[in-house]
Amino acid sequence: MLVVDLGAQYAQLIARRVREAHVYSEIVPRSITALEIRERNPIGVILSGGPASVYADDAYEIDEEILALGVPILGICYGHQVIAHSLGGTVAKTGTAEYGRTEMVGTGAGVLLDGLPEHQSVWMSHGDSVTTAPDGFTVTASTEGSPVAAMENRSAGIFGVQYHPEVAHTPRGDEVFKHFLYEACQAPPSWTRHSIIEESLAAVRSQIGDSQVICGLSGGVDSSVAAALVHAAVGDQLTCIFVDHGLLRAGEGVQVEETFRRHFDINLIHVKAQDRFLDALAGVTDPEAKRKIIGELFIRVFEEIAAEISDAQFLVQGTLYPDVIESGTGTAAKIKTHHNVGGLPDDMVFDLVEPLRDLFKDEVRAVGEELGLPAEIVWRQPFPGPGLAVRIIGDVTLERLEILRAADTIVVDEIRKAGLYGEIWQSFGVLPAIRSVGVQGDERTYAYPLIVRAVMSEDAMTADWARLPYDVMEAISSRVMNEVPGINRVAYDISSKPPSTIEWE
Ligand code: XMP
Questions:
Q1: Would you list the domain boundaries of the chain?
Q2: Which terminal CB of the chain, N or C, has fewer other CB atoms within 10 Å?
Q3: Looking at 80, 85, 126, 164, which residue is catalytic?
Q4: Which residue has the higher pLDDT, 284 or 342?
Q5: 193-378 in CATH: which number?
Q6: pLDDT band at residue 189 under the 50/70/90 scheme
Q7: At the topology level of CATH, where does 2-184 sit?
């Protein structure tokens, strides 16, 4: 299924819904021509929603020949208006813009809304409305502001809905996609985690052949799933390099090593480089300087090891489909690795193996589960590359790392016990560079506070502080102060992003 992008945020969501209905979908730019679509031979085309009006000077246009290809088409919101406008219907300002939950009344006719209730709640977001459908179309639903809220021309295979079936606020939106996919397009529901893996394995095998391949493993979900997939494809031809900078959370290095060595019997080089990193960081307090030092040293260590495996021709990378869409570029066959493992030098050139580049994050997780990665890795909250160094304000010393590791473990443990780990985007401890006075066992203490940070977010671009229940905060506070020497106060960070950021540095 091709999803023509007439407004990026909607297009991604539509592509995901289509895949959730087990049909493979790809997003294509609105400049795509009818000829290009024909060459790709899709099972159907969806025209996404978008911010424009069909009458705007800079209105997004499509090649109208697309509508004459004989390929089933579904227009959503702006896409619906484009269809109406192109085929001789009327799009007008009715004076009733609709935003948000809207009551829609169906006629009971047609394929798209088949079996759905006569009255249903749908999510709208539009100014203009289709007031008359083009010739040959049947109107199958309307709302107060949209006389033609849904329409279809079954024999031409063209369908349109003014509302957004892709958003969660349209409760029965998934059925609209299923009707379009299974009835109108006759698409088999064959895109499953099993088929994703089968296709990836075949693609990786044919790309790599008998060559050697290396993969930088971080313990995060993307690099872990990419490594597991490539290992399933080419076994011992893969060597993973896990540069452990010693700035990971408690037990993390061991867990990554155990998972890959024992579980997958993978060639793994675990480079324990904590001393090198701590030496390089000694006395450095400026956040950007810390990041730069860690980034550069990371590359140097990776490069040293990679050079030892001198016959490796390929490098695995965990690029995901949203990165591909956002970069807006086609596939570049030979790319220097330096955007990727964080800036490898220009003279180190590998062919990239990107087994996840067609997948959304939820599909990556499903593949990870299917390949047997443990839930701790598959469902792990994001963790920054520079690790705890950006959560220890000021000097990063072994002593302060150990204090933060112990306290952070308690934070995550209590959040897990409360059943909140999966709902919260990130939850962790921060160790600031101040100390304050406390009293413990009749003794005066002068120790660090722990800042607890827990945020809710969709994509890390914006975030809000999590409203943790008081009893969870209390459990964290009392355990941290009882169990972690060096901390005598616990504070909760109630800053949103913006104006703060999620990490403290
Ligand atoms: P901020 O602090 O900018 O973080 O709100 C946004 C998200 O990015 C993560 N983060 C990083 N991830 N390397 C990474 O791989 C980094 O250097 C890095 N810095 C921040 C952060 O944890 C949050 O999820």
A1: 2-184, 193-378, 391-492
A2: C
A3: 164
A4: 284
A5: 3.40.50.620
A6: very high
A7: Rossmann fold (3.40.50)
| Interacting residues of 360 by C-beta distance below 8 A, sequence separation 6+ | 12, 15, 16, 19, 320, 321, 322
CB–CB of 3/25 below 8 Å? yes
Ligand 1 pocket residue status of 385, Cβ below 6 Å: yes
Q: Which residues pair with 492 in a beta bridge?
A: 452
Q: Is 166 part of the annotated catalytic residue set? A: yes
CATH class of the domain at 391-492 = alpha beta
Percent of the chain with pLDDT over 70: 95
Rounded distance between C-alpha atoms, residue 414 and residue 217, angstroms:
28
Angle made by CA atoms 454, 459, 460, in degrees to the nearest 5:
45
| Distance between CA atoms of residues 386 and 30, nearest Å | 38
pTM above 0.85, yes or no: no
Read off the pLDDT of residues 279-297 as tens digits, 9 standing for 90 and up.
999 999 999 999 999 999 9
The CA–CA distances, whole Å, from 184 to 87, 100, 107, 187 equal 19, 28, 19, 8
- Rounded-to-integer distance, Cα 61 and Cα 435, Å: 61
Does any ligand 1 atom lie closer than 6 A to the CB of residue 384?
yes
